[in-house]
Amino acid sequence: MNTQLIADYKAFLDCGKTERECVSRIIELAEKAGFKDIYKTTSLKAGDKVYVQKMNKAISLFVVGKNPIEEGMNILGAHIDSPRLDVKQNPLYERDFLVYLNTHYYGGIKKYQWVTIPLAIHGVVCKKDGTTVNICIGEKPEDPVFCISDILPHLAQKQMKDSASDFISGESLDLILGSSVPKKNDDSDKKEKEDKVTAKKAILKILKDSYGIEEEDFGSAELEIVPAGHARDMGFDRSLILGYGQDDRSCAYTSARALLECDSADRTACCICVDKEEIGSVGATGMESHFFENCVAELIDRLPEGYSELKLRRALANSMMLSSDVNAAFDPMNSDLYDKDNASFLGGGIVFNKYTGSRGKSGASDANPEFIAKLRGLLDKNSVRYQMAELGKVDQGGGGTIAYHAAKYGMNVLDAGVSVLSMHAPWEITSCEDIEQAYLAYKAFLTL
Length: 448
Known about the structure:
Layout: H1 3-15, H2 19-32, E1 36-37, E2 49-54, E3 58-63, E4 73-79, E5 84-95, E6 98-106, E7 119-126, E8 132-137, E9 175-179, H3 188-211, E10 221-227, E11 232-234, E12 240-243, H4 246-260, E13 268-274, H5 291-301, H6 309-317, E14 320-323, E15 327-328, E16 350-353, E17 357-358, H7 369-381, E18 386-388, E19 398-399, H8 403-407, E20 412-417, E21 419-420, E22 428-431, H9 432-446
Parallel strand pairs: 1-2, 4-13, 4-14, 14-20, 15-21, 16-18
Antiparallel strand pairs: 2-3, 3-13, 5-6, 5-10, 6-9, 7-8, 7-10, 11-12, 12-22, 16-20, 17-19
Helix pairs in contact: 4-9, 5-6
């Protein structure tokens, strides 16, 4: 096992719990590897290494190849957003001596998994004077953590009769930020109101003194609630990794690292890490936007042959892409949900998923067999372990990736990533072996 790779991967999970943090870390690693911001260059040649970032939440990296760009690129595409809770724009309130932060869940979550666990606050607060305050509270040993409370079992008779999707509502996923001690006097109603105001004011004073944040600044904040704590080795044999956000940062990190270690080849190599996949790849930083093709246009404009719309279209259409995204690992405790012969297993190597989508392949990108055969031959030649799989039984559900957004350009695309157990839970499980095999597969692909 490549122990250094695994250690570096866990460190990436720890420092990259939001899209912004992931992009910041990737840029840091890229610049150490000799990559330059494309907007600080005017011309490019074979062997040059550049990156393009968008709104600090999406990034593309390129290693310019020797062949004309019109012949296409080898692309690794992953997403760096993960299910979480987002803080609302008017979030702070006090109720009966407890101060809360109001949230809105992001992506596909089981809401009950987010209660009674230690949570941290990550993100930015952008102020009217143009300054930005970076927030990361709950990760250091000396930091406070936060939590969402739940009903004690003694009083949960009604709650326990509700369905799993209903017994914790989205509006109840509010963080406890602090409390005050109720004080009794003759005018109890008046005093209770004073205590309520005092509790919230005390939290606002801490925010003001520690971070320079006023209550109105929440209106232009982007704060994400994530599990507090570090990624850990799991199991006596340490063969597994327990960590937050492994969908899809297990693929994003291994893809980015493979690209950062790539030297000039015949074809231009690319890694793109985008945002918003968990909610449909929307927005200016999602794969559905024009971000990626704009990045390629900027690249072509700086090459000796110069830019044209036709060159851009040819470059995209002639490209090959691995949609680096995770697949559900076979769960022996819920084996009836899987077609075992077509399931992926922890430790089985990188997973090739010919098509994703739901039920009748809705929202899928169905890869061409000629492309899959070429990849099989490549990985066999490089002694990389891989497995062919689907997400689960046909009628059980499904899921999508960024693959079909790339396929619209006419390029060959195949989903290829890491198996994950407890996918979309606050703490997800992957295999060290699969992390290494994904990294080796991505490295081999970039030279194809």
